[in-house]
Amino acid sequence: DKALTLHDWVAKNIFYDTDSVDGNTNTAPYIATDVLKSRRAVCLGYANLYASLCRSLNIPCNVVTGYALGVNETDTSRWNEINISETESNHAWNEVYTDNRWVIVDTTWDSHNKITNFKKEKSDVISHLYFDANIKFFSVNHKIIEYVKR
Predict the structure, then answer these.
(1) Would the pTM count as exceeding 0.70?
(2) By percentage, how much of the chain surpasses pLDDT 90?
(3) Which residues pair with 103 in a beta bridge?
(4) Which of 35, 41, 36 is nearest to 111 (CA)?
(5) Residue ranges in the chain assigned as alpha helix (H)
């Protein structure tokens, strides 16, 4: 319940900074305290904040970096010979230890808040599609490249 509550808080209160991805503003913060203060981030900021919040409650949590389909305009929606071999990360998410098992969590993809053209667009929708996603579903568009204990 605590891991889900933290997921929902991050998804509801942090805004994906599309302006920083597009190069229109400074890079979005990725250090948890900076994300918390600014309420803006890209995936690594979401993942670092979620990990920090979990750890503050003694819930083990790791940051995972990998490759996700659909992040860039050049990405396809399916794995192919080129993108399946990708070794450069373009996305980050978490694995949290709860209920005696590791659970996959992607707060970025479950959040629908964003900053575009310097305006915050808040959504009341919080998805749970990427909270405790099974590996078969998650692998449709995510590939692990590295586990990092941050």
Answers:
(1) yes
(2) 63
(3) 96
(4) 41
(5) 2-13, 18-21, 32-38, 43-56, 107-110, 135-138
C-alpha–C-alpha distance, residues 17 and 121, integer Å: 10
Contact 54, 3 (CB under 8 A): yes
* Alpha-carbon span 87 to 109, nearest angstrom: 21
In the 8-state DSSP scheme, what is residue 84?
G
Dist. CA 125–CA 150, nearest whole Å: 28
pLDDT score, position 69: 86
Q: How far apart are CA 88 and CA 147, in angstroms?
A: 13
DSSP state of 83: G
Helix (H, G, I), strand (E, B) or coil at 108: helix
Kindly report, residue by residue over 88-113, the tens digit of the pLDDT.
888 999 999 999 999 999 999 999 99
The pLDDT of residue 145 is 84
Name every residue whose Cβ is closer than 8 Å to that of residue 140 and which is 6 or more positions away in sequence: none
Residue of 150 and 70 predicted with greater confidence: 70
What is the CB-side half-sphere exposure of residue 14 using CA atoms within 13 A?
Answer: 34
What is residue 150's predicted lDDT score, i.e. its pLDDT? 52
Cα separation, 88 vs 75, in Å, equals 13
